[in-house]
Amino acid sequence: MLNKDVSAGRVSAGVVEKVDVAAVNSAASRTLYKAREPIYPKLVHGKFRALKWALLSLTLGVYYLLPWIRWPRGVGEPDQAVLVDFPGRRFYFFFIEIWPDELYYLTGLLILAALALFLATALFGRVWCGYACPQTVWTDLYIAVERLVEGDRNKRIKLAKAPWTSAKIAKKTIKHALWLVIAAATGGAWVFYFHDAPSVFPQIFRGEAPGSAYLFIGILTLTTYILAGSMREQVCTYMCPWPRIQAALTDSETLQVTYKFDRGEPRGSHKKGQSWDGRGDCVDCFACVAACPMGIDIRDGAQLECINCALCIDACDDTMKKVGRPLGLIGYDTDMNLRRRQAGEKEKFRLIRTRTILYSALIAAVGLLILSGLASRATMDVSVIRDRTPPFVTLSDGSIRNAYTVKIVNKANSARDFVIRLEGSSAYHLTTVGAETHDNTLTVTADGDAVRSVRIFATLAPGELSRASGDIRIIVEEVGGGESVVNKTAFMKERR
Amino acid sequence: MAGKEIDAPTGIETTGHSWDGIKELNNPLPRWWLTVFYISIVWSFAYWIFMPSWPGISGHLKGTRNHSERANVERAVADLESMRADQMKRLLTVGSVSEIESDPDLQLFALTAGKSIFGDNCATCHGAGGQGNVGYPNLADDDWLWGGTLSDIQTTIHYGIRSDHPEARINQMMGYGETGALSGDQISDVVEHVMTISGRDADAAAAARGAEVFAVQCVSCHGPDGKGMKALGAPNLTDGIWLYGGERQDIQKSLYFGRSGVMPAWTGRLSEEQMTALAVYVHSLGGGE
User: Fold this and answer.
1) Looking at the domain assignment, is residue A11 inside a domain?
2) Of A277, B53, B236, B285, which one is least surrounded by beta carbons within 10 A?
C-alpha cells in the first residue's frame, strides 16, 4: 500500500554509482566471534529522514524542557510540573500527586506503555526502535555531530585511515568534546526531574548540588558518551532484549521495512539507456547499506539487527529517482503482501486484526481503570496498628484497656480536623494521652500533606466482654467534610 | 624440556603436561583479565599512598587522606546529635513536662527518643511495652506505687527506688515472719483480711482477727482501709493489681519474707534530656496521671 508509483521519478534517469560497502552481518562472513566493524552511515535525504529529525527534536525537546515547566500547587508545595521528590516521598505529575502507597499508578502507567508498545509493534513493526528509543535518538544526534565535524561517510572513512596529523587530532578532539557536552547535558537534565530545576541548575555549577546529583550526572554522562558514541548498534544487537521480544509481537500482516525482492530481483548494475526487461529494479548500488546505521543489508530480508529506522527507504528512493524507476523498492510492506504479489493476488492490509483489537481493548481497560482510580481518589487514608506488647492492660478497677496507634494520612494541601470515634460489639470508652475526649470522640488536626499519628486507648468495663476478643471499629471522619474511613480491628482480653 | 611442542589440530603450544595422553594447551590468559590484573596492582600502590595500609610496630601507616572509620562514626554521631540538638534543648527549657505533651511536634520527638531509650535501658525488666512482670511494675496500667504524674515518673527515673542514690525513694516492707514480728497464725489471719478488703472470699473469723493485727502493724503505710499511700510507695491492697501476685500464697510470702525490689537511679547514666524524653514516653504508655 505504500508502494506508490511516483511517475515523476522516471523523468530524471541517470547513472548510479555503486557504493563500496558490505553488510557487517552478511551470512558469508559470519563467525562465532567477530570484532566490530566500524560503520559510517551516509547521510540521506527524504521523508523518513525528515520525520526522524522531527521526532528527534520533539523527544529531545520534551526531555530537556519538561522539568522547566511550572505548575503552581499552592504555598509550601513544589511548583514543578513533573517532579520525583525522593526526600519528600512524592511524585508530582501536573495535577496528579502520588504518595508512595499509590505507586500502583506508576505500575499501571508502565503496563499502559508496554501495551501501547505491543500495539504499535503489531501494526508498524519496530517503530519504537527506529524512531523513539533513546539509544536511536542519541546515536542519531551523535552521528549528526560526527558528520558536522568530520564530514560525510567517505570523508570519515578517509579520516579514520589517515595518519595522526594535527588536523585529525583537532577534528577528533572537537567531536569528542561536543559528544561530552551532549552527554553531560543528558545527565544534567536527568537530575532536574528529581530536584527543583531552577534552583539546582546554578547549584550544579557552584558545586552546591547534592552528591547524588553529581553521581547521576556522572553515570548518565558516561553511559550516553559510551552507548551513543562508541557502542551504538552493538547495544541494539547484543545488549537489548527488545529485538527478541518484538520479533514475537509481529506477524505476517505487520508493516515492516522491507526490500521487495519480487520487484527488485534479479538485481544487477544498470547503465543508462539499458533495457529494464527481464531484470529487477535493484541496481545493486548499495546505497541502502551505506545509509544503514546498523551496517546491514536490508536485501538479506528481515533480520534481528534491523531497527526499522527506514533510512534505507530514503536511500533507495533517491536511487530509484535517478534511474527513473518507481519509488518504494524498499518500503513499509508486510510479509503477507510479499507472498500475495508473488501469487498474483491483490495486496491487502488490515489495521483491525484479532491481535490489535485485543491490545486496544487492554489499553482501554487499563486506561479506564487508572482514570477511574484517579478520579475517585480519596484525600485521606487511615491505618491502625494494635499494640501487641502488651496485647491488653488490666486496670486497677478490673477494666481492660487496649491501645491502638492511628495514623491519619491527609493528602490534601491544607490542614484538616478529623474526629476519631469507636464502635463495636461492646461500649468502648475512648481516651488518649495529652488531649481530652468529648462525648467519647477525639478531634485531631492533621497538617496538609502530612501524616498525623495518635495513640488512642479503648477501655471496657469489667465483665463487658464474655469472649477473649471482641470486634472494634475505629472510625475517622473529616470534620465538615464527607470523607471517612472505617478500620476494623480486634479488642483483646485475657483468655480464661 | 626440549623445545616447544605445538598441538597440531589447534596450532597452539602445549605446556608439556600430559594426562592419559591428553595434553594441556598453553593458552594465554584473556587480555581483559590481564588488564584488570595490572590495573589492580597499580590501584593497590595508589591505595597504600592514600589510605591506611601497612601495620607498623606502633600504630600503622595512616595514608595521606588520614582516613579513619572510627572518626567517621564519631562524625556521624556528632552530626546526628547536632541534628537533634534543637529539639533536645527544647526538652530541657520547656517549663514543665506537661508542656511537651501539648506540643505535637515536641511530643512526637520525645516519644520517639523515649521509646528507643526505654528499649535500651528499661525493657529488660519492665517489658518491651512497659507491661512489667512479677516483681517489676506494669507501667501501662493506672496503678502507681510512687505516683504516675509526669514529675513523679521523672523523680523515680532520676533517683531510682532503694538504689544507692541519696535521693532514692525508699520504704520498707519488712519480713514479718522472718523477723519473728508476727506468728504464723497472725500472718495467716492478715492474709484473710487482705483477701477480704480486695473483694474476695475469705474466712470471716480469721479475717476479723487479721483486721486487728492489720490496724496495728500495717495501717501506718497501707492506710486504715488498705488503699495504700503513694507518698510512701505503699501499694493499694484493695484493687486487682498485685506486683508480687495476688493469690493467698503470694500474699503470705510477701508478709513472711517482706518485699524490697530495687530500681537503679538513672542520673549519671542518662542525660537530663534523655530522662525527660523517657518520662514522657512512660507517661504515654497509658497509665499516666
Assistant:
1) no
2) A277
**CA of B166 vs chain A CAs: smallest distance (Å):** 31
Domains B82-167+263-284 and B184-257 share a fold: yes
* pLDDT mean for each 10 residues of chain B (289 residues): 73 86 87 96 94 89 88 94 88 76 82 93 92 91 88 93 92 91 93 92 92 92 91 90 91 93 94 90 82
- Contact assignment for A389 to B128 by CB distance below 8 Å: yes
Q: A433 vs B241: CB contact, 8 Å cut-off?
A: no
Instruction: Identify the residue among B131, B230, B283 best suited for mutation to test binding to A, counting A beta carbons within 10 A and taking the highest.
Output: B131
Residues in chain B within 8 Å Cβ distance of A397? 239-240
- For residues A330 and A316, is the Cβ–Cβ distance under 8 A? yes
CB B206 within 8 A of CB B200: no
Contacts of A181 (CB under 8 A, 6+ apart): none
In chain B, domain spans: 6-50, 82-167+263-284, 184-257
Q: Is residue A71 part of a domain?
A: no
Take residue B42 and report the three cell numbers written for it.
Answer: 597499580
A404, part of any domain: yes
Preferred mutation among A433, A443, A447 to probe B, highest tally of B CBs within 10 A: A433
Minimal-distance CA residue of chain B relative to A436: B102
Chain A residues within an 8 Å CB radius of B101: 433-434
Q: Which residue of B has its CA nearest to A389?
A: B129
Domain carrying residue A478: 380-492
> What pLDDT is recorded for position A4?
41
In the predicted structure, residue A129 carries a pLDDT above the cut 60: yes
pLDDT tier at A6, thresholds 50, 70, 90 = very low
**Spelled out in words, what is the top-level CATH class assigned to the domain B82-167+263-284?**
mainly alpha
Q: What is the pLDDT of residues B111-168, one digit of tens each?
A: 899 999 999 999 999 999 898 989 999 998 888 999 888 889 999 999 999 999 999 9
* ipTM of the complex in this document: 0.74
Q: What is the CATH number of the domain that holds A398?
A: 2.60.40.10
Give tens-digit pLDDT for A384-424: 999 888 888 888 888 899 999 999 998 888 889 999 999 98
Is A393's CB within 8 Å of B141's CB? yes
Structural contact between residues A92 and A197, judged by C-beta atoms closer than 8 angstroms: no
Question: What is the rounded distance in angstroms from the CA atom of residue A243 to the CA atom of residue A249?
Answer: 10
Chain A: closest CA distance from residue B65 (Å): 19
Residue A482: C-alpha distances to residues A380, A487, B49, B189 (Å): 11, 16, 68, 64
Total of domains in chain A: 1
**Residue A141 maps to a domain:** no
Inter-chain residue contact A433 with B108, CB threshold 8 Å: no
